[in-house]
Specification:
alpha+beta, Alpha-Beta Plaits, 2 domains, 50% helix
Length: 231
């Protein structure tokens, strides 16, 4: 039996199980936050399967953990998944901030290094612009982008061995994107990756001839990460 679409997706779901958060606040409220309340940290939450994109399924539980802290008002991730913005509650001192960040880093097994100087100024400007930052369930948008990128990659790989598959790209991409997105945003069990693979087989059988089907299954075997010069 072929492996699921990606061992990466499986590992992400096992290490960072999806959880639902409260509805995110409006970005417009950034303008009401004092710069002294905001800290920025480098964070390893970029998606292995999509260059330059944050991993929504990995980020969601991290943001949830942060916002459970009594000293933290809001937690946001940038589009690239490399920078975390923390809006601290009023009167939270430096020692309390450091302790909370260490606690989350240890609990999640990730590194969180505070950004200062020119980099902080740059991030603060980006954050207050209200563009490209995601809080809570908003990171599902990153997962949607990731799903579309993986679907495109699988189809391009398959087209190298079965060029006729390009005539069916529109319907095929929509179907594959939807099933990967569902796995990334709503599935939390260990069976999710295998279930996703089975659904991919069903979609492929419904839309492709034998040559195209085999080409797509071969493409899936290569995993979700970009290979070589793939984007």
């Amino acid at each position: 039996m072929h492996k699921p679409i990606s061992a990466i997706l499986a590992a992400t779901l096992l290490i960072f199980p999806g959880t639902m958060l409260a509805q995110p606040i409006s970005h417009s409220e950034h303008s009401n936050v004092s710069p002294a309340q905001v800290s920025f940290y480098s964070v390893p939450l970029a998606c292995p399967a999509a260059r330059g994109l944050g991993c929504g399924s990995a980020a969601k539980p991290v943001l949830r953990t942060l916002e459970k802290k009594k000293t933290i008002q809001e937690a946001w991730l940038d589009h690239a998944g490399t920078t975390l913005a923390i809006v601290w509650k009023q009167e939270t001192n430096a020692d309390s901030r450091s302790a909370e960040i260490r606690s989350v880093a240890d609990d999640r097994g990730i590194s969180l290094h505070e950004l200062r100087g020119e980099q902080r100024d740059k991030d603060l400007k980006s954050f207050t612009s209200a563009k490209g930052w995601y809080r809570g369930d908003e990171v599902d948008r990153l997962s949607e982008e990731e799903a579309a990128i993986i679907a495109d990659r699988l189809i391009r790989r398959a087209a190298l061995k079965a060029p006729t598959i390009t005539d069916k790209t529109a319907a095929l991409k929509t179907a594959i994107t939807n099933l990967i997105r569902e796995q990334l945003t709503n599935c939390t069990s260990a069976e999710c990756p295998e279930d996703c693979h089975k659904k991919l087989v069903e979609v492929a059988r419904q839309n492709l001839n034998d040559q195209e089907f085999n080409a797509l299954m071969e493409a899936e075997k290569q995993g979700a990460r970009p290979v070589g010069a793939e984007q």
